[in-house]
Amino acid sequence: MDILISSLVAGLLIGSVFALVALGLTIIFGVMDIVNFAHGEFLMIGMYTGILTVQVTGLDPLFSLPVALAVGFALGLLCYVGFVKYLLRGPMVAQLLGTFGLMLFLRNLVLLIFGSEDRGIHTGILVGKSLDLGMGVIIPATKLAAAVLSVLSFVAVYVFIHKTKLGKALQATALNRQAARYMGIPAERMNALAWGIGGATVTAAGALLVNFWSASPYVGLLFTMIAFAIVALGGFGSIPGAFFAALVVGLITEIPGIWDFFTYTFDNDWMADVPMNSFKYTGVYLTYFIIMVVRPRGLFGWKL
Amino acid sequence: MEVVRNAFDFSDFPKTDLLVVGCGLLFLLFFPLLPHSTFAMATMIQFLMFSLYGMGWNTIGGYGGQVDLGKAQYVGIGAYTTAVMLIRWDVPFWVSMPAGVMFSVTWSFIIGYPLFRLTGHYFAIATIATSLVLKDVFEVWDFVGAARGLEILATKYDAVDFTHLIFENDNYYYYILLAFFLLGILIINWFRHSRLGYQLRCIKDNELIAQSLGIDVHKSKVKTYALATAFVSVVGSFHACYIKNIEPEDTMSLDLSILIALMAMLGGAGSLWGPIIGAGILIPLKSYLKEWLGASAGLVGIDLILYALIIMVVSAVEPRGVWGLIEKIRARRT
Amino acid sequence: MMKRFSMGLAWCAALMLIAGGWLVPSPAAAVKEVKIGVIYPLTGGAAAAGRELRAGAELAAQIANEVMDGIDMDMAKKAGIQSLGGAKIKLIFKDHEGNPTLGADLAKKLILDDKVDGILGCYHSSVTKTVSAVCEQYGVPMINGSSTSPALTKRGFKWFWRTTPHDKWFTKDLFELLDGLAAGKVRGVSGVKKDDLQRLAAACERTEWGAHVADLIKTLAEQYGYDLKKSILYAAKSADLSSEVRSLKAARPDVMLFASYTSDAILMVKTLKAQKAKPKLIWGQDAGFEKPEFRQTLGDNIVGILTRTVFLPKVADIKPVAGQVNQLYKAKTGHDLGGASARAFTGVQTWVYALEKAGSVDHAAIQKACNTIEIPGEQLVVPWAGIKFASTGDETGQNVLGSGLIGQYQKGKDGKIGLEIVYPFDLATADMIYPFPGW
């Protein structure tokens, strides 16, 4: 029983962080119909930002969040103004090619600077601490903190988009670009804003993740795929959808644990022989594929 | 008969192009006779392999406009079929290669059918997803060696073994691949002139119009996808005999899929010479940059940074790639 | 027309330029030296190990090439290879990044372009597999110092020799230790029953090496009568191992066994701690578990963890020559010799002996020399009985005189954490800590 509860809790916790990862992708997609393949690379940069902040300032890793937000916002803005803007004139193929180029560029830039060794944060007040819920269910403190901060950030962005004037302008652009322009909303600036927010949120997620997830230049792609799966599940452009979808995807990555639970419950040899933990992320990819084929709009989607 | 005529019909290209192609062919034909290092030879073989991958990708991705980022799964199926058959049952390459094509095409029908309900980015991401799922399966499948992969021991065969395609001297591999390469150009040239080719270009321009013209869009796409798959699978089989050690991480990685697509797109998607130009620029660039800057100067990743910059500039300035640039210049001259 | 024609020519030239940037092989060097191609993971996930391997190999070459006082080794007393007129050893390093295909390419390049006389490498068993296949194809001798997958010497290769003992011996050592615990043979531990150690759980990385280790653990557990409750293969270079650790924990093992490279080993122990897993023993299959980074990053947390190895600084207490070399190595790198560097050292040393015996750089002569070579144990830094390769049978090319150690991390009197020998029992340098003290 303990493994089942542990797995479910772990799935929900990591899912909360995934929500912040996917948020940026869904905002950018909603506002300007472009898929950013470099999304995971932004997250990877967030991880390295976290590590660097800790190393340079000696602060606790949790304080790297504001730094990561600033870096991410600047990075998103820079990418848009310096590069993505020019892609928009071209066809969809050029956008794909371009953001792929961006992905390769960022990944290898980090590789050049930091090398390919895995790095992690091994200091800080929360590292090594954990919360014992009894019955063998143990929650590492770093994960809990990351999940809580992630949900708070998510809510903050949600409130920003729904309550502030700027946010509403962004939303209007997403709903109907042409109409928004007639209302005097500068579409170009909204695009830049979307990239800024998109970059900031995902970079922040990286800074949170690095507390318990080791960073390497190659880590981005996995998160790009996870974010795609979440956005597909939650509906392209839908923010609340992304949150619930992220929790579901978090649980999907914990299928091996749930499988273990049933293996021990039924004491089944056949089940024990299935190398389920090798398929940790396969479920995520499959989810994307199945959702897209069955319901191309996404489960809660409104935009296509 | 018409097929053959179409395949050899290059009359729609200007004479300068054909002159360049002729010179290029002469160079390719006599390259092994020129003084060269093994490294240069390996680079040339890579160039031919990626040209073929690109040509395959180009049918569905270039002419059809469906950006496929999962080609590596077919490289994997081709390579694994050949390797498994060779190691377990000593099957000659010339039997296992068609078998590999058969498996690949079957798989392409299975996933292509639902896949082509999607378009645009959704399609592109879905192809990544299928490729990754297949890779995960191969990584735990003991029959094909799981994650430790399969090894073909060259010492078990003669130094020159045409039936199993095992050679000590790379020149043999080079010429066999060159033959595939020329055949590939002819097949693509046929495809350009074929009914399917025209249908696909129509679909790329506007799917609704294509539909209203009575084209079965879905069927055309799936058919072309199978053709693209066959190309990639053949080279995958070759790869197994040439590299002699295959692992999921190597043959089925997403990086390979991306490289295939990027090269074709960079050279010019939807043109006959595009993938060849793309591979001709990027493969030597990548190998030599890595050799000069990466390994010796310790600047790991600098090759791919320059590589990425080229891709970014091309996509922002001229999305039709190098071939688009050439056509633009040419249009300005006349 | 003329214009178009000239443009065409320009294109031709451009095409030639692009395709023809080949390197013409450089002429053979005039100095008399023996070139050994060394293929190691100098960058990539195992870069830390690569640095150690390189330093170890370089030190051995230096000792062989110069006359060095104060080292009781034959090769330190002479400069260069005597039977080749004092020819110097020149190591040409190449970086395989942990990629088997790249490794094979590099081997081809070393053999055909650089015309090396032999190959040394490659650490990762998966890379050694492809590189040795290339060497076998071209008939170039290869000595392997540190890849431990048993399959490597099961292929009947004629050009491949391995100095290190392989995982079957190491894993057997582990079960001997477990049996020894129950039999009261271990220094400082008594009153352990076999039932206390009955349940095993293993996590190995999903590579050539890890997969073989997992198979060995399974077969040996059956032979020795232990119950392997859970065995998982995880993706190498994982970023997150928490679900794997939960899965291991759910099996309620008494002993946890791992085969991981450095970054995974660190992450694994960190996750075990976060999940408060508390088995009675934690055992690592060398690699990541004995790297300086492992100790530096995790600090006090690793006290009580066991790792198999072939060398640890305490060997210097038993073998003076190991201490002498260790001092040189420490002056050079700031670290003590470890399993990786000591074996790289031994690999180069074996090359020196083979060349000395062959008296020629002719491949066939070297092959003959390797098959008949006998290096006495007192010449080696590693605590083996010597080096002698099996030239026939199903372990062709395997050194039959090697042996392994099991070390345990303990806190010394100076507060520093280091490895103490706990197996073989007669070499033990400290009382074993049992059970694992927890976090």
From TrEMBL, chain A:
Protein name: Amino acid/amide ABC transporter membrane protein 1, HAAT family (TC 3.A.1.4.-)
Species of provenance: Desulfacinum hydrothermale DSM 13146
The organism's place on the tree of life at top rank: Bacteria
A GO-annotated cellular component: plasma membrane
CDD domains: TM_PBP1_LivH_like (cd06582)
Locations listed in the record: Cell membrane
GO MF term list: transmembrane transporter activity
Membrane topology (UniProt): Multi-pass membrane protein
InterPro entries per UniProt: ABC_transp_permease, BCAA_transport_permease
Family of this protein: Belongs to the binding-protein-dependent transport system permease family. LivHM subfamily.
Sorted UniProt keywords: Amino-acid transport, Cell membrane, Membrane, Transmembrane, Transmembrane helix, Transport
TrEMBL record, chain B:
Subcellular location: Cell membrane
Record carries keyword Transmembrane: yes
Keyword Flavoprotein (UniProt): no
Keyword terms: Cell membrane, Membrane, Transmembrane, Transmembrane helix
GO annotation, cellular component aspect: plasma membrane
Transmembrane segments: 18-34, 95-115, 172-191, 225-246, 258-285, 292-317
Protein name in UniProt: Amino acid/amide ABC transporter membrane protein 2, HAAT family
Lineage: Bacteria, Pseudomonadati, Thermodesulfobacteriota, Syntrophobacteria, Syntrophobacterales
From TrEMBL, chain C:
UniProt entry tagged with the keyword Signal: yes
This protein's UniProt keywords: Signal
Coiled-coil stretches noted in the UniProt entry, renumbered to this chain: none
Start and end residues of each Leucine-binding protein domain: 33-377
Top-rank taxon, per record: Bacteria
PANTHER family noted in UniProt: ABC TRANSPORTER SUBSTRATE-BINDING PROTEIN, LEUCINE-SPECIFIC-BINDING PROTEIN
Keyword Signal: yes
Protein family (similarity comment): Belongs to the leucine-binding protein family.
Record-given protein name: Branched-chain amino acid transport system substrate-binding protein
